[in-house]
Design a protein that fits this description.
The chain has ten helices and 20 strands. The protein is an alpha+beta fold.
């Protein structure tokens, strides 16, 4: 049966207590906003308000397990409430009526992400309206069929989530090995030699005389172009690229060799990735080439512990950034090189295992997305 979603749900939103009234904040009640939609399936509030904050704002307590959708910024993103909580005005609770299964509705909304992106509007911050949710065309099979579809998607989703968790464990293992071998680089409990970062390798900014987005003739060739997002999302090794320079673009830039450690100094601060191919990058990325005192795997492990400290030290502006001098002047902990080489070998072994898991993750993501689309075309359960 085809129908409109608004015929089968109840919608309500939240609000924000006045920031000027201290007694409304830092209480016992979790209060969620769009920034708390970091997990795929659940929302975990990072702020707290008081009962007075609830009573004196448009918000209310949302029961644990409620289905929540973002109507601004992370438009269309859905998640379940991880606990009883209050929510702000950019989030809405979608409460299904008795003929509509909650989990079925959750996956239905996920499958319609492209719809929400298409109807969103706003000059600086994109948003959707209640009418966009209510007017969404819903495929509504019998409740028993809805539950079967939800169970199949649950199983596929659980498989990909477990694969993601395994990747996270490998990342945690790398940090654990670093701490065991070298200690915390902030406190240096093992008393390793301390030098300036500039003394263990060459640090230089990337180069681009012109902004590529303002000069399209610089793009579209065969020369890989890496941006800050490529570094931040690389998982430690930059294996792919989405942008390229033309020959003209290359001439006004610089090609860095495979193996260069890329360090972001704008937008995403002090994120790192090791190039797996020759590539160019702009001056928002710094290239590091180690000398005989260190290696890239060790430097990358060291920077992961300092990343938050470096980010917090960045001057506040329209976009946070740090300069090359800040990086060069960092105190660098220098263990004996044979220890660093052992660490590098361990990291390379972990990366081999991660490559296998990443391949499995791609397959599980592909399966889940395929099932998600089939589910609401009537192709998953007859």
């Amino acid at each position: 049966m085809k129908t409109q979603l608004g015929n089968h749900i109840n919608l309500y939103g939240g609000g924000t207590p006045s920031k000027e009234v201290e007694s409304y904040w830092n209480g016992e009640i979790p209060w969620a906003s769009v920034k708390d939609l970091k997990e795929e399936n659940f929302i975990f509030p990072t702020d707290r308000i008081t009962e007075a904050g609830v009573k004196n704002s448009a918000t209310r307590i949302v029961p644990k397990g409620s289905l929540i959708i973002a109507t601004r910024m992370a438009v269309g993103k859905v998640a379940f409430a991880s606990d009883d909580m209050a929510i702000n005005q950019d989030l809405k609770v979608i409460e299904p009526q008795k003929e509509l299964d909650r989990k079925y509705l959750f996956y239905f909304l996920k499958a319609n992400d492209a719809y929400f992106q298409g109807v969103s509007s706003g000059a600086t911050v994109k948003g959707i309206k209640i009418k966009h949710i209510n007017s969404l065309e819903l495929t509504l099979p019998p409740l028993s069929t809805q539950k079967k579809i939800a169970a199949i998607l649950d199983a596929a989703d659980a498989h990909r989530q477990k694969t993601r968790q395994l990747l996270a464990k490998y990342d945690a293992l790398a940090q654990s090995i670093f701490l065991e071998m070298f200690g915390d680089p902030v406190t240096n409990p093992k008393g390793w030699e301390i030098v300036k970062f500039s003394e263990v390798g060459k640090l230089d900014r990337g180069k681009s005389k012109h902004r590529p987005r303002n000069a399209t003739e610089l793009l579209g060739g065969i020369h890989p172009l890496i941006q800050t997002g490529d570094v931040a999302n690389s998982g430690g090794y930059i294996k792919n690229y989405t942008s390229t320079y033309s020959d003209l673009g290359l001439r006004q830039s610089k090609m860095w060799p495979k193996g260069t450690l890329c360090i972001t100094i704008a937008a995403n601060i002090a994120k790192t990735g090791i190039l797996k191919f020759d590539a160019c990058f702009p001056d928002s990325v710094v290239g590091f080439i180690p000398n005989k005192k260190t290696n890239n795997e060790y430097v990358q492990g060291w920077m992961k512990f300092l990343q938050k400290i470096i980010e917090d030290s960045a001057p506040e502006s329209a976009q946070k950034n740090i300069n090359l001098k800040i990086l060069r002047d960092l105190d660098f902990m220098v263990p004996r090189i044979e220890f660093q080489k052992k660490y590098s070998a361990a990291i390379n072994s972990i990366e081999c295992q991660k490559d296998i898991i990443l391949s499995e993750l791609e397959e599980s993501e592909s399966l889940f997305n395929s099932l998600l689309q089939k589910a609401f075309k009537g192709e998953l359960v007859k």
